[in-house]
Amino acid sequence: MSEGDFGRVAILGVGLMGASFGLAVRSRGLVQEVVGYDLSESMLQCALERGAISEATTDLEKAVSQADLLVFAVPVEIMPSLMESILPFISPSAILTDLGSTKQRIVAEGARLFGARFIGGHPMAGSEESGAKAGRADLFQGAAWILTPSHPESEVARLESLVKALGARPLLLDAQEHDRMVALVSHLPHALSFSFSQTVSELSKPALAESLAGSSYRDMIRVSASSPQLWSGIFLENREALLASVVAYEEALHCLREVLQTGDRVALEALLSQYAKPQ
Amino acid sequence: MSEGDFGRVAILGVGLMGASFGLAVRSRGLVQEVVGYDLSESMLQCALERGAISEATTDLEKAVSQADLLVFAVPVEIMPSLMESILPFISPSAILTDLGSTKQRIVAEGARLFGARFIGGHPMAGSEESGAKAGRADLFQGAAWILTPSHPESEVARLESLVKALGARPLLLDAQEHDRMVALVSHLPHALSFSFSQTVSELSKPALAESLAGSSYRDMIRVSASSPQLWSGIFLENREALLASVVAYEEALHCLREVLQTGDRVALEALLSQYAKPQ
């Protein structure tokens, strides 16, 4: 068995991210057994039918007791309590990670409960769709995959090998820096897209807007179809960092509006040029 | 010759839009001759080499005097003066249209100068890239193509046939309604993307942000690479309608921020659910 391989993996939560992880490791033959745990039997059934897991259970002890690698893939706000629940059942050699969009509270809980064996993770890939039905074996292909080990003696090298084997790019970051950066590069774009969708609904019949849509509209509105349940949890979990990004964004947009109001062509072109990427 | 065909077409301005129009009509064999006019000899050369035009000239009279269809594809703010310049040279049976992103002033000038023979047009397709080198024969495939005839006796049916032959969907709109809708579905997304790019530059090293980027980041930042020259012209040409969209957007984002600040999960989820598309 090479460094990135694990004999038996437990995926806790088989929605979009968990199912994609299962499909990715199984399609590459990196793992012998993948057991999926979920509260929803229909989600487990879908994950099983799609081949994302080789076994399904709603029994937490059964899911985790024999696993070499545990992957938490539930909504971020319920992750800490799930971590606490599995503590009595896990093998002393198991490695634990997660696929959550926020890291500070999860990594703090992981370190408290599991010490160096928990290494936070966040693949920078997703979809506006949700559930096991939307899982894709290639979801992580080419994506950055942030790892946030909190102990110097953690087995991060094994996880890095696995991440590379899935075609992703491992990147080590501190949990606080993760949350600050991800507020900017992921949570802010989601907030902006939700607000764009709201503005379209207010100013137009959405069907008319859709009928006229070009690529700038489609890109701007796509992620607003993401799950409101999942994303309200993520926004609140990373509230302070997201608020800082939103405030900075409001200032940038306000500045653009002010220049537009003056009608000053030279100033407007200078503003847009300042930040536009070179052609 | 079928209804949508024209023997000789003149494209005035062979940047992204003009070159794409030339490639689209020539690759489908819809037109015998396509003459390109531009102030830039290198742009003409590129359009000629790529096959977007069959003839190139910097002589306006030569470009337009024999043309059955004239297509204005220059930046919106210089279109009215170019329309005035060609008036003495055009054939009395020529039809005229444009590919500009704003319509009210252009359509008013077209109606004044050419009467029913001018029919405003706006294909809802583009790219953050610019110039003839970025032209694509399939740019308009599947796109809405707004036509804004201002005279009841205009030959809009011939243009509709041509638009359909290019694989696009013709849509008739009044010029004022066009400008209001396009402020929302195209100009606002561009303004939001420019402001996002600015915020990223302020809060992060752009290279770090890029290295972490997932699809929500890429979708949000893509159009900020668009030409600042072109887009400052478009923004100012449609300033009032764009300002109304920006103000509505600022209110929507402010509302999201306020709910986020309260930390009220139920209210936040309700807000995001209200506008999220059904899964």
Q: What's this model, at a glance?
A:
Chain A has twelve helices and eight strands.
Write the layout of secondary structure elements.
The structure is a homodimer of 279-residue chains.
Chain A: E1 6-12, H1 16-27, E2 31-37, H2 41-49, E3 55-57, H3 60-64, E4 69-72, H4 79-86, E5 95-98, H5 104-114, E6 118-123, E7 144-149, H6 156-165, E8 169-172, H7 175-203, H8 206-212, H9 215-221, H10 228-237, H11 239-262, H12 265-275
Parallel strand pairs in A: 1-2, 1-4, 2-3, 4-5, 5-6, 7-8
Antiparallel strand pairs in A: 6-7
Helix pairs in contact in A: 4-5, 7-11
Q: In words, what does this structure look like?
A:
The structure is a homodimer. Chain A is an alpha/beta fold and about 280 residues long. The first copy, chain A, folds into two domains: about 5-175, Rossmann fold (3-Layer(aba) Sandwich); about 180-275, 6-phosphogluconate dehydrogenase C-terminal fold (Orthogonal Bundle). Chain A contains twelve helices and eight strands. Chain A has helices at about 15-25, 40-50, 60-65, 80-85, 105-115, 155-165, 175-205, 205-210, 215-220, 230-235, 240-260, 265-275; strands spanning about 5-10, 30-35, 55, 70, 95-100, 120-125, 145-150, 170. The first copy, chain A, has an eight-stranded mixed beta sheet, sandwiched between helices. In chain A, α5 links the parallel β5 (about 95-100) and β6. In chain A, α4 (about 80-85) packs parallel to α5 (about 105-115) and α7 crosses α11 (about 240-260). The termini of chain A are far apart. At the A-B interface, α7, α8, α9, α10 and α11 of A face α7, α8, α9, α10 and α11 of B.
